[in-house]
Structures are given as C-alpha cells and as structure tokens.
Amino acid sequence: MATMQDNQTWSGRFNEPVAELVKRYTASVDFDKRLALFDIQGSLAHAQMLAHCSIISTQDLQDIQRGLAQIENEIINGDFVWSLDLEDVHLNIEKRLTTMVGDAGKRLHTGRSRNDQVATDIRLYLRSSIDDIVLLLKAMQTSLLNLAQHHTHTIMPGFTHLQVAQPVSFAHHLMAYFEMCQRDVERFTDARKRVNRLPLGAAALAGTSYPIKRELVAELLGFEAVCQNSLDAVSDRDFAIEFTACSALVMTHLSRLSEELILWMSPRFGFIDIADRFCTGSSIMPQKKNPDVPELVRGKTGRVNGHLVALLTLMKGQPLAYNKDNQEDKEPLFDTVDTLTQTLRIYADMMTGITVKPEAMRRAALQGYATATDLADYLVKKGLPFRDAHEAVALAVRYAEQKNCDLAELKLDELQQFSSLISDDIYAVLTLEGSLAARNHTGGTAPQQVEAAIARARKLLAG
Ligand code: ARG
C-alpha cells in the first residue's frame, strides 16, 4: 500500500496519493488565498460560538484566537507559506494553526465543513466589495454632478438613432448617467441583503449534530440572517450571480458613456477633449491622441458580461448540494470586482479631465433642424391638430433644406407658406434656448429643471 503524505487531510480513506496533475488541477489556493482574512474572520466567530456552547473549551478558544492572530500577521506581512499540497486557503490556514497551537487547531473544524466555510468567506468578501463599490459609484455620481453643474445652459444636439433630434443641455445628458448610477447603487444595496446571510452551521449539507448557535455566529459576523436551509446554504451561489449581474450593468452603463466620449472626442464631433493623462498616442501617426481609457472600459465590459454568463452556466446543471464546480466561482468574481473597482476609480477621475467645447456643441445643434418639433408644437398650440402640424413642418424642413438654411433663417412670409397660423413670435420658439426653456417639467431639459435635478441629486448623495 502506498504511504500517504501526512499533510493530506483525508489520508485515512485513500490507498494512494493524489496524482500530481490532479493535485494541480483541483487546487484553488493560488487564487482563493485572496479570501484568507475573511476565512480567519469566519473561523474566529465559529470558534467563539463553539466555546460559548461548550463544544470546545475556553482554553481551546484562546489558543485558536492567538494562533489565528499570528497567522493573520504572517499573511499581511507576506510571510505565510502557501502550499499547493494543502489544496485551498481553508486547509492551509487550518494546518498552520494546528502546527502552531496543536489540538485546539484540530478542534476548530468541529461542526463545520469547507462547504459552509467557503460560502461564508465569499459572502463576507462580496459584502465588503459591495460597500467599496457603492462608495465608488457615489464618487462617480459626484463627478457627474460637478461637471453638470456648469453646463445647464450648454446646448448640444440630443440624438435618437444618432441623428440630431432635439436640443438638450449637456448637463441634462450627464444627469441621465447620474440616474443610471443611482439605480446601480440601489441594485447593489438590495443585492447586499441577500449576500449578507450566514451559511455556517449547514456544515457539509445537512447541518450538524453539535448543539450550535448559528444566530450567535451571524451576529458576530454582522450577517442580517442565517440561511434557512442547510442544503441551500452550501450550494447557493445566486447571490454571486446577482452581484455579477449588478456589476455587468454598471459596466454596461459606463460602456455607453465611453462610446459617447469616444464619439464626442472625435474631430467630427469635437464636443469635448479628454486630458492627456487619460489618452495615449500612436507609435506611427504623430498627430494621434487616442481615448484609450473609454475604449478599454467598453472592451472590459465584455469580460464582466462574460463572467455573468460563466457563473450562470456554472450553476445550471448542478444537483443539490455542494459540488466542486463551485470552486470555479472565484476567479470570475475576483476579476469582476477588480475590473469594476478599477474602472470606477479611473472614471470618476477622468470626468474631472474633460474639457467641454460649447461652441462645437451649439454648432451641431443648429444643424439638422433640431427645433422642428418646437415649430409643430407652436402650430398645435394655435389650434392645428398635431398630425397636420407635423406635415406642415416636414414641408418647411424640406424647403429649408433646399435653401441650405435653418428654419429660423427663413423669412416670415416663407414660413407662412406652410401655415397661416405662423406669426413673428415664431422666432423665439425656433431658438435653441427657446426649445430648452419650453421643456419645463420634471425630467425635462429646461435649465430650471436640470438645476432642480442637480440639487435633488446633491441632497440624495449627502443623505
Ligand atoms: N476550495 C473549495 C471551493 O472553493 C472549498 C470547498 C471544498 N469542499 C469540498 N467538499 N471539497 O469550493
């Protein structure tokens, strides 16, 4: 019979050691060591409960606490030696603890399994990530507000189908992204409630025969509730999928904004410039200044969307309860958190490096008959049914197009060919400012409304 290496936790049951390739294939320590501090936090709470319930002695608890404190230091200082033979973060820490404090270390795993342990670690990790992300989202919102504040009177063309539609203020456009970010904050805040539940106590899958007190562990770890079914507790990764879906939506929002920044910075638009520190040059074309950051954000959105699909696929064929498949949840989650936090951090900063070019925006708004709807609305207010007004203005636009001028440049008698209802008060209506001011209701682009929206937003962030 082959002898087992003594560091194999389940050596008693096996006749031969795990093949080298299999060991590498199944080990997760290279990446799940990132959960180490959460693993220790969970172990401390578990041990405290075991002592409270007299399942281990107070002396054992003290030994465990002392050992884990030292391990934590070793990890923080980079002195901890991780071993692939010990498969994952959980066994590495437990083995080190046992080496340091003896039998007390061997008692830590009483009434616990790595199945409920790892689920707890991920939940602690995601809870803390959500708290970071919400702060970063708020910083992004502040950046949007700070820019918007100066541009409630800066007029640009609003687009539909990327065709000039109606004039809007640049501030109004930015505030659309504030709203998206606000929904992102709300989504993460809501998902946090489902992340913040305790799996420990489920043990391998069925619960444990020791007289444990799960509520105490939940309280010690700041969980809002305990998972109510032990099978579900060890196998559920909905919370991780939900987290990734929330993240994919943030990235999608930032990807849309990126697409706009890229377009706006193109000389064809020339609406903005992005500070040099966020751009790069070309190795061959000396004139180039490329918006690499927004382009990369757009590109990295694909990665996070991919992680969402990976996690959904990971889960779809799994019978209850825990399966090793779940070990594959970690890398997509870690990469999602890294990508999202780095993106938000750089974005909030990049918004402060945007130079707005109001003249170029205005020039673009004056092309493409952006106030045609205002002319139609004017006719409606004078009694013409909307469909007839629409038709009259379409003819006027065609006429102006042939003359290669704007509607506001047509003389009164020219305009009156299309409707006798038109009089010289029309010119105020056809200006960009008139068009904006007319949309004076909640959610409209009138400067007064956008200023109110910014004020509401500031209050929301402060509260
Ligand atoms: N490394 C494992 C994971 O990430 C820990 C749980 C292992 N449980 C087991 N029964 N093999 O999911």
- The name of the CATH topology of the largest domain is Fumarase C, Chain A, domain 2
Q: Give the uncertain stretches in residue-range form.
A: 1-5
**Chemical compounds bound to the protein:** arginine
Question: Mind telling me the C-alpha Rg?
Answer: 31 Å
Question: How do the SSEs run, as a string of H and E?
Answer: HHHHHHHEEHEHEHHEHHEHHHHHHH
Which CATH-level-2 architecture of the largest domain? Up-down Bundle
Please, how many domains?
3
Mean pLDDT: 96
Biggest sheet descriptor: 2 strands, antiparallel
| Strands, total number | 6
- Using the alpha-carbon principal axes, give the shape: elongated
Q: What's the N-to-C terminus distance?
A: 68 Å
Brief description of this entry?
This protein has 463 residues and is mainly alpha-helical.
